């Protein structure tokens, strides 16, 4: 078998695309039974029984008092930000999915971009203080790749400057930090249950907190501010989770251990398969903590590798391995932030350097260990034939 057929003008290595975010499925029969029950009940949304059950399961799993399930994590972030009364400026890492920044900007709060820690890829506490101004009201840390932020350092700075802290935990459901489950840090944390996440609701999100008042506000805001029939006591939006999404979430949660096991198996297979490849390093997960192994993140250091990240991603995509460049080029280089803050990059040296080196490889239940070995073989073949690869890439349409 030729590891990299694209070089020889042959068929793609994978007939069907291998995706980074192929949804994991729970037990299909159980899901279909739940769908039938929803139809029988004719209760489709607005705090239905499955949403309530999903919230309880999350509360127990995470060990928090409140879970407010929502239609997606972006709306959950927006609602949490508003319920916490963040305004003015809020410090966020530039290295995150654009939703973190947009959730602020959407409410006319300025995201102020901080740099990342090159090891953990999360908000670097050392980059925070110089960004604090009289308009700063909070900090949003992001547990990128399910690897938790340095919550202790962030919260110390926040309390010194009387700032509120919340976390975008979109990647970190099922993960722990210093023995405590993610979800219990800061004023609140937000999970994503989007189709591409390891536990999914098709679309879904949740804000979790131990603060009774905050939870109450978020519940009101998620349902237009209604506190009963014909009684609105708060400005609100429609952030509700539907029953069908909760059914998927519950079904998905029931397979959580198996999903984590297949993610972990693939992670180990990548670790083995990429070992010793110059310039390629797999970002490791701390096995002493709970991890969901949802993202396979590889740094391509062009000073040691024969191909750079963009070239390697292009080869992989030519072979139908749809590797992604998350979170390139960083929020600060996307609109509207690029126009608002054209010099932001000057304070973001780690983000600038590392966003250009990272790629995320396919994993999840839809990817087998054999698929992983094949992906690693493509990477090895491409790296050892870099001159031919570059010539072949130039001929691509
Ligand atoms: N905060 C952070 C740190 C986040 O990473 C995210 C979302 C959020 C907040 C906001 O959460 P939500 O509001 O979405 O709940 C994808 C996801 O759409 C997004 O949820 C996720 N982060 C981000 C990291 O990845 P895109 O723009 O890359 O999606 P897309 O359409 O390119 O899909 C990714 C891959 O998955 C493709 O190869 C296709 C495949 N796929 C996708 C879907 C939806 C499937 O095979 N089946 C599917 O059903 O953002």
Helix count equals 13
**Distinct small-molecule ligands in the complex:** ligand T4K
Biggest β-sheet: strands ordered side by side in the sheet = 2-10-9-6-5-3-4
The assigned structural class equals alpha/beta
Please tally the β strands and state the result. Answer: 14
Rounded to an integer in angstroms, the radius of gyration calculated over CA atoms is 22 Å
Q: Could you state the order of secondary-structure elements as H and E?
A: EHHEHEHEEHEEEEEHHHEEHEHHEHH
Mean pLDDT: 96
Measure the end-to-end span: 26 Å
Poorly predicted regions: none
Name the helicity range: 25-40%
Largest sheet: 7 strands, mixed
What is the global morphology?
Answer: globular
Which descriptors would you attach to this protein?
13 helices; three-stranded antiparallel beta sheet; binds ligand T4K; alpha/beta; 14 strands; 397 residues; 37% helix
